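Molecular record:
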Amino acid sequence: MLSLAQARALQLSAQGLLQPPRRRARRDEVVAAVGRMRLLQIDTIHVVARSPYLVLHSRLGDYPAVWLDEALAQGRLAECWAHEACFVSAADIAWHRGGHDHRTHHWAHRNAARMHREQRADMDALLQAIRVSGPVRAADFARRDTASKPGWWEWKPEKRWLEAWFALGELMVARRDNFQRVYDLAENVLARLDPPFDPAAAPSAAERRRRFIVDSVRALGVTQAAWIADYFRLKPKVSDRELLPLVASGELLAVPVQGWRTPGYVHRDHADALDKALAGRLRATRTVLLSPFDPLVWDRVRLLAMFDFEYTLECYTPAPKRRYGYFVLPILHRGRLVGRLDAKAHRGTGVFEVKALFLEPEVSPESALAQAVAGAIAETARWHGTPEIQLGRVQPVALARLLRAAWRDAG
């Protein structure tokens, strides 16, 4: 039987978060990391680095963020709707297409289909214009209502139509310019993928669901059946009964986990890691800051059960009602989530502002923990190009002194 600590270690191992990188990152590791996670969620908030870059930093350490952009432009990665809007390996894109019948339940597809029904003439005209003139950005279209405020709720019509065609699969993202999507016909983007896209490889709905279930278990390391569907937004939910044939074939291993009323499931690719975990030889040594959209933390139910960490993203909460801050990053330390911090990277002045930092109530501000957390913050700050750390509110207060001492000694 796996203890909960051993299950955590197995999940961190599968996600590439168990131990620090052994060497400086290489370009190919960006695509490999996305392949390991199976997908990389996209989000545009950039008070610190935008989420996909930060998720990779948590796994690769100090790497040039432009490598992600280059991998997309080279066709080694592609964008599609999966968990949400995500990067996926080019090798996996066939599983995310095929008529999009498997996505009809997703809110993005439903909204796009409704928009096309209601604004068919305008959307069809836009698509035809791209066929004639080539790739476009939303920024290529002038805003008609100059009084409108910026923000996703005030998208101009062309932006909404481009996003709708992207959700429906007629457009794809050829590359990004300063993180702005450059849209092209899907057929053009697919023709440039590496490895090549095979249009004849059209899996059935049953094959696709099976693949996404298996990929979810592989990415999560160990999981309950109830947590599987969220990874690729599958419907209906996955049950233990549905997993029985996969266990019988040996593709999945059923493992009891201490405190769980249902089995844990492990992919056979992780059999060696499972043996090490059971023997207590899978040691978590990584201390790092995580994105709110990291696959480790995006399922709040799984996160609470696995790490006893209650987490809410408060950027959509009115400021007076926020408990911890606008864009709060969980702190992973040696297999536990020990705290969270609200940060902002001031790139113009080179300052990484830690507005607030909170340890979990049961976590003591010991010297070794403070040294590790200080190192993780400094590593993230340097990667942002904001090496000067400005520390704000800290709970418990004693931790602030230890952090400052660690940075002073390191500098």
User: Anything to note?
Assistant: The longest strand covers residues 336-346.
